[in-house]
Amino acid sequence: GRAPGGEERRGPPEASVSNGGDAEGGKELVELKVIWNKNKYDVKFCLDGTGAELKQKIHSLTGLPPAMQKVMFKGLLPEEKTLREIKVTNGAKIMVVGSTINDVLAVNTPKDAAQQEVKAEENKKEPLCRQKQHRKVLDKGKPDDVMPSVKGVQERLPTVPLSGMYNKSGGKVRLTFKLEQDQLWIGTKERTEKLPMGSIKNVVSEPIEGHEDYHMMAFQLGPTEASYYWVYWVPTQYVDAIKDTVLGKWQYF
């Protein structure tokens, strides 16, 4: 007799029309469209197979390791559930997101955002005043005409310009707060930049190691960190008043 063939015929009709080894002894199959990286794959898969098994199948088609696959069907496909349990039907579209190792290696430069995050992480670990770009200026020592600092005191902004500070190229810089015009004037020997206070997105500062009564301070003039304008040797008693004035948090001392 033809016993081996008899196995196949007892299953539901769609199992017997399956081409190749997909029909496993009368298990119910479902036809899926797997979409990955603009490629479409027609896949027949056992309805009682789990999400994890489907990932293995996708691996065999795409070369994408299961650990790097995000498989989406009405949200993230649960690995432990069967396709029947999550109600996958014939013709269902399964979206796969992920890059093979080769793709990852082919893209030499990580995304800018990722680079910035890494940079930000590194910067957090290391005090600003130890970073190379800042050391260049700080190693020159205090400017000879630096303003005296008063520890442990917060003072209002003086009526005269804050002077005796360096900018990041080591040139002398002074800050004038023109409150009636709502402007900060950053003056160097060459020129004076008149900035509307509202255009300054942020102000950061950190005490200078070994000279904690002075700060280094940066005014963020554009959207990225590259637009910080650094000023060194700001007397500590004015730091809060500068931040409050520039960022518009008025405090009367």
In this structure, how is the largest beta sheet organized? 7 strands, antiparallel
At the first level of CATH, the class of the largest domain is: Mainly Beta
Assembly status: single chain
Helix content: 10-25%
**CATH structural architecture of the largest domain:** Roll
- Please, what is the CATH homologous superfamily of the largest domain? Pleckstrin-homology domain (PH domain)/Phosphotyrosine-binding domain (PTB)
Shape estimate: rod-shaped
- Count of DSSP strands: 11
Q: What's the gyration radius in Å?
A: 33 Å
Average residue pLDDT = 81
Beta-strand residue fraction:
25-35%
Question: Secondary-structure element sequence?
Answer: HHEEHEEHHHEEEEEEEH
Highlighted features:
single chain, 253 residues, Ubiquitin-like (UB roll), 2 domains, 4-stranded mixed beta sheet, 7 helices, 11 strands, 23% helix
Structure description:
The protein is an alpha+beta fold. It folds into two domains: 29-103, Roll (Ubiquitin-like (UB roll)), CATH 3.10.20.90; 128-247, PH-domain like. It has seven helices and eleven strands. It has helices at 3-9, 13-16, 51-62, 101-106, 112-125, 132-138, 239-247; strands at residues 29-36, 39-46, 70-72, 92-97, 162-167, 172-178, 183-187, 192-196, 202-208, 211-220, 228-235. It has a seven-stranded antiparallel sheet, covered by helices on one side. A hairpin with a 2-residue loop joins strand 9 (202-208) and strand 10 (211-220). The radius of gyration is 33 Å and the shape is rod-shaped. Residues 1-12 have a biased composition (Basic and acidic residues). One of its GO terms (molecular function) is RNA binding. Residues 1-24 are annotated as: Disordered.
